[in-house]
Amino acid sequence: MTDGFDPVAYNRAAWDREVDRGNEWTSPAGPEVIARARAGDWSVVLIGYEPVPRDWFPAELAGTALLCLASGGGQQGPVLAAAGADVTVFDNSPRQLGRDEEVAARDGLAIRTVLGDMRDLSPFADASFDVIFNPVSNVFCPDQLG
């Protein structure tokens, strides 16, 4: 980057600020949402407010290794973990990952959080995940084809 602009650092700081501002995409799922997910009544969104069709996921989430890619914020990861998936949340924002950790601690969920740039999946071995869930975040990538 010849102009000195670092999009990863910029986006990290921006999303950390959004947590402080209470942006709706940084507000963790409540205990009632997690309780419903544990009982099999769950949904997640990729963009907007329309739930992702359930048949996009395995019929049984228990034991499914699921990567929530650039999906911090305490929403999708905790819901999918409560539904039985083995969830790793990979996000660029420490504050967004903190939201996932808050919900995990509050509701006794096992969620692994990893800080990093979604364009570099080298922290994970090949074929580590059965499913990758990636909400609209590729718009934050400076070079989507590179």
Description:
By secondary structure, this protein is an alpha/beta fold. It has one domain (7-139): 3-Layer(aba) Sandwich (Rossmann fold). The protein is built from 4 helices and 4 strands, in the order H-H-E-H-E-H-E-E. The chain has helices spanning 7-21, 31-38, 76-82, 94-107, and strands spanning 65-69, 86-91, 111-115, 131-133. A 4-stranded parallel β-sheet has the order 3-2-1-4, with helices on one face. Helix 2 runs parallel beside helix 3 (76-82). The mean pLDDT is 90.
Q: What is the highest CATH level, the class?
A: Alpha Beta
Helix segment tally: 4
Just name the CATH architecture: 3-Layer(aba) Sandwich
What is the CATH T-level topology? Rossmann fold
What is the alpha-carbon Rg in Å? 15 Å
Q: What is the CATH superfamily label? A: Vaccinia Virus protein VP39
Biggest sheet: strands, sense, closure?
A: 4 strands, parallel
Q: Which sequence of strands runs across the widest sheet? A: 3-2-1-4
How many β-strands, per DSSP?
4
Q: Please trace the helix and strand order, writing H or E for each element.
A: HHEHEHEE
Low-confidence stretches: none
**Range of helix content:** 25-40%
The fraction of residues in strands falls at: 5-15%
| Overall number of structural domains | 1
Cα shape: globular
Structural class: alpha/beta
